[in-house]
Amino acid sequence: MAKIPVFRIIFLLIIQYHLAGQFPLQLSPNHRFLVDADNQPFLIKEFSAWGLIQALSEPDEAAFLDSIKLRGFNTVLVSVISNATSQMGGNPPDWQGIPPFQVEWDFSTPNELYFQHVDHFLALAREKGFLVLLVPCYLGYFTDASQGWWDEVRSANNSPENMRSYGEFLGRRYKDTPNIIWVAGGDNDAKDIDEPYLQNLIAGMRSSDNQHLWTGHFDNTSGTFWSTDNPRYRKYIDIDGLYVWKEISLGDRGPHYRTELAQYGKGKMIFQLDMSYEHDVPHYADNENPQWIRRKMYNGLLSGCAGTSFSSGTLENQCYWFKKWQPLMNTPGMQLVNHCFKLFDALPWHQLIPDTNEQIVVTGRGTFGWLDYACAAKASDDSFYVIYIPTGRTLYFNLHAMSESVMRMHWYNPRTGQFIRIGHAGHDSHFGVVTPDDDDWVLIFDGIPDWQLPG
């Protein structure tokens, strides 16, 4: 066996120590984004991996995290317990034959062996630098008994009091685990008959853990798109997540950027939670059209979102099944998402403020509320400006309104991850730009001292 050089081992240990040390995260002073333990901005780059804790062996979990880390992700969305036999890999709700509860469907009887595995996963994720958006209990769509725990929660073996006991157990056990943000719900509004169960679960958790942040993932088919759209749990929400399966379902609140800008105006941190599933059913443009996936992702990050999300797949295989996940690490969708991460990781993205007036982009922006509208954002110190142009066109800019300085200009191709240097521009009230072709492009005006193009 080949020996690994000592210097490389030391380097890897230093990197792992640094990544683990970035937690806990907290809200920035202006409550717009997350910062780590060193007060550095943390952009949520989430992979939706619902059944990961339950589906894979511990070595495979480590391999999966390593793989998505190489592709730019720093966050996973998972459930502590999974019970969606039609979707998750393995044999839910067991992990490697170990059930989560000692008594079937009695949430007050957690199985120590199962939760030792949960402990291991959370420690592993922290070591590798991953934030875990952690669902205490994925409830699932109440119309489908094969998805989630909603029907087992209602079973004769369980009760709201048992859910509180489960919540107290989770709160005590994970109150000092620094790389967690709790997620209420899971495709379910938990209303009417189900509300006492989730309310007691959350109350039990918060009785001994009032330090972790919370977001919510509810039933977007009922119009509960934002975490704070659910009035029953709004008081718990620190970070407002947007969960939309079909953009058209937003109705008058859409497209995505329209509702994101409106929510950004309310002052709470927002992010795209559990958004695009490559080639997932039903096969709407949201999951099938690469330009739609790019458009929603770039528009969101330019419309106030402090994070985005993705899950890879093919027409025959979805990553959240965890049956054949390795081939899904190099799909076209994974590549385009990595291109997006590369750009925003290279920018001081936390300084971006959405540009919604008509002072900078004079003409060519498109119609607000339509899919062809070009979303843009400007740095709070006027040092850079970014605009995502969804289709080829000519635009005119008032550079006086953008910055008093001369700016460098760069095209960024979101399809290939390649930059094209254009030159310099400034002090022009009617500056015209033509996209290189008819596809989507990102245009960056850069006045950042010593900024280097990534790659």
Description:
With 455 residues, the chain is of the alpha/beta class. The protein folds into two domains: 325 residues, Glycosidases (TIM Barrel, Alpha-Beta Barrel), CATH 3.20.20; 95 residues, Immunoglobulin-like (Sandwich). It has twelve helices and 21 strands. The strands form five sheets. A seven-stranded parallel beta sheet has the order 8-7-6-5-4-12-11. A six-stranded antiparallel beta sheet has the order 13-15-16-21-18-19, covered by helices on one side. It is elongated and about 70 Å long. The model has no long low-confidence stretch (mean pLDDT 94).
Write the layout of secondary structure elements.
Elements: H1 6-20, E1 26-27, E2 34-35, E3 41-42, E4 44-48, H2 52-55, H3 58-70, E5 75-79, H4 112-127, E6 131-135, H5 150-153, H6 160-174, E7 180-185, H7 195-206, E8 214-217, E9 240-242, H8 256-264, E10 270-272, E11 276-277, H9 285-288, H10 290-301, E12 307-311, H11 332-346, E13 352-354, E14 361-363, E15 375-379, E16 384-389, E17 394-397, H12 399-402, E18 407-413, E19 418-425, E20 431-434, E21 441-446
Parallel strand pairs: 4-5, 4-12, 5-6, 6-7, 7-8, 9-10, 11-12
Antiparallel strand pairs: 1-2, 2-3, 13-15, 14-17, 15-16, 16-21, 17-20, 18-19, 18-21
Structure characteristics:
Immunoglobulin-like, single chain, seven-stranded parallel sheet, 2 domains, 455 residues, alpha/beta, six-stranded antiparallel sheet, 12 helices, TIM Barrel
Quick description:
This protein is an alpha/beta fold. The chain has helices at residues 6-20, 52-55, 58-70, 112-127, 150-153, 160-174, 195-206, 256-264, 285-288, 290-301, 332-346, 399-402, and strands spanning 26-27, 34-35, 41-42, 44-48, 75-79, 131-135, 180-185, 214-217, 240-242, 270-272, 276-277, 307-311, 352-354, 361-363, 375-379, 384-389, 394-397, 407-413, 418-425, 431-434, 441-446. The protein is 27% helix and 20% strand.
